[in-house]
């Protein structure tokens, strides 16, 4: 029993591929259209909380993903200044339950590769260099235009095409990502043996300095600053800025700076926020993942929320007889409040830092959200 037989998905990122895997496993014909010409091999690392790992298990990809990443427990807080002493060792809420690590890090490119392999093995067709440029809706389906030409008629179009979603625009959803006032530098570097979990430094010249292990020999480092127009700086200037802003941080940052000086790439983006309020679908078109919601990575729930969107949506699509109001009502009841809680908490944590609010209960907010995420979506 399935409400759909043929589905188009915009976007071959984590969310889109997760949806493709689950639908194809259930015997649905799936076409994934990705505007980029080929799978990305770039990027730094990604932090994944336990509830994301739980979804990977449901996809059948957990063993491959675990082998390619660095599972860990807990979070260390260090002080800026000489020696970078650890001032707190915080236990993580195991949001995936007792069967999974509290968290893990891994290279983004490896995660994309593994999910792509699983999607294709399940029977999904993934088309790169294929941009969705138009659509026409009917009562029982949607015709999808790719690069101006009809790709056929589908029972459903899933827009998992990221922050600047073309599908979201095509169906007239006006919500768009807005800057939160923070910008982040990222660099993919080698992992010192002493780094066995995520570590954060609060205070000093930037809002947050930190790093997360992504493998036996790798990790990614971050510096979160006031949002600035850094997008056109040269590679050399990007490295120089990361070096200068990290001088106040000792300990493993000495190794990070050595890698940056040796040529590690420094990338810069702004934190954004948005949430499609109310319904995420317009007829036979629905947006999920970053197309529907975005937030600063202050509690590392972005990927997990997109994965949960995909899992809940595909569960409903493959267990119901029809794409009807009952299906959409349950989808929105299960996903919108949960995503909204994550977006609001993530934005609040960043705003407290921007405002310099010393009375803010950041730990309490993070713990409360983690407890919510521990309950399966």
Structure description:
With 377 residues, this protein is of the alpha+beta class. It has ten helices and 20 strands. It has an eight-stranded mixed sheet with strand order 6-5-14-15-16-13-17-20. Strands 8-2-1-12-19-18 form a six-stranded mixed sheet. A hairpin with a 2-residue loop joins β9 (132-138) and β10. It starts with 5 loop residues before the first strand and ends with a helix. The relative contact order is 0.18. It holds the Pfam family FAD_binding_3. Residues 6-345 form the FAD-binding domain. Keywords: Monooxygenase, Oxidoreductase.
Structural class: alpha+beta
Relative strand content:
25-35%
Largest sheet: 8 strands, mixed
Give, in spatial order, the strands making up the sheet with the most strands. Answer: 6-5-14-15-16-13-17-20
Distance between the termini: 22 Å
What integer value in Å does the Rg equal?
21 Å
Task: Give the overall form.
Answer: globular
Poorly predicted runs: none
H and E string: EHEEHHEEEEHEEEEEHEEEEHHEEEEHHH
Mean pLDDT score? 96
**Number of DSSP helical runs:** 10
What is the oligomer described by this structure?
single chain
Keywords: Monooxygenase, Oxidoreductase
Organism: Agromyces terreus
GO molecular function: FAD binding; monooxygenase activity
Pfam families: FAD_binding_3
């Amino acid at each position: 029993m399935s409400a759909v037989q043929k589905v188009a998905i915009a976007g071959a990122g984590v969310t889109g591929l997760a949806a493709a895997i689950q639908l194809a496993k259930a015997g649905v014909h799936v076409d994934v259209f990705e505007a980029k010409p080929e799978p990305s091999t770039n990027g730094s690392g990604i932090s994944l909380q336990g509830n994301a790992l739980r979804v990977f298990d449901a996809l059948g990809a957990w063993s491959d993903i675990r082998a390619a990443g660095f599972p860990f427990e807990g979070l260390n807080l260090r002080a800026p200044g000489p020696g970078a002493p650890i001032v707190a060792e915080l236990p993580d809420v195991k949001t995936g339950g007792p069967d999974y690590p509290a968290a893990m890090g891994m290279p983004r490119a490896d995660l994309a590769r593994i999910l792509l392999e699983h999607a294709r093995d399940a029977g999904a067709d993934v088309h790169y260099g294929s941009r969705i440029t138009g659509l026409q809706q009917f009562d029982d389906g949607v015709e999808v235009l790719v690069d101006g030409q009809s790709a056929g008629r589908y029972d459903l179009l899933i827009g998992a095409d990221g922050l600047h979603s073309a599908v979201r625009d095509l169906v007239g959803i006006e919500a768009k990502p807005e800057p939160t006032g923070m910008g982040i530098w990222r660099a993919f570097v080698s992992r010192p043996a002493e780094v066995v979990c995520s570590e954060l430094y609060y205070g000093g010249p930037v809002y947050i300095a930190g790093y997360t292990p992504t493998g036996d020999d790798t990790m990614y480092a971050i510096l979160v600053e006031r949002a600035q127009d850094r997008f056109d700086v040269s590679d050399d200037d990007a490295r120089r800025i990361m070096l200068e802003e990290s001088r106040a941080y000792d300990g493993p940052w000495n190794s990070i700076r050595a890698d940056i000086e040796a040529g590690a790439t420094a990338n810069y983006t702004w934190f954004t926020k948005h949430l499609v309020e109310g319904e995420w679908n317009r007829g036979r078109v629905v947006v999920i993942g970053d197309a529907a919601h975005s937030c600063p990575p202050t509690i590392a729930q972005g990927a997990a929320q997109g994965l949960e969107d995909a899992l809940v949506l595909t569960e409903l699509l493959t267990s119901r007889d029809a794409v009807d109001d009952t299906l959409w009502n349950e989808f929105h009841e299960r996903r919108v409040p949960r995503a909204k809680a994550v977006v609001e908490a993530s934005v609040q944590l960043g705003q407290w830092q921007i405002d310099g609010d010393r009375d803010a209960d950041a730990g309490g907010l993070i713990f409360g959200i983690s407890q919510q995420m521990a309950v399966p979506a």
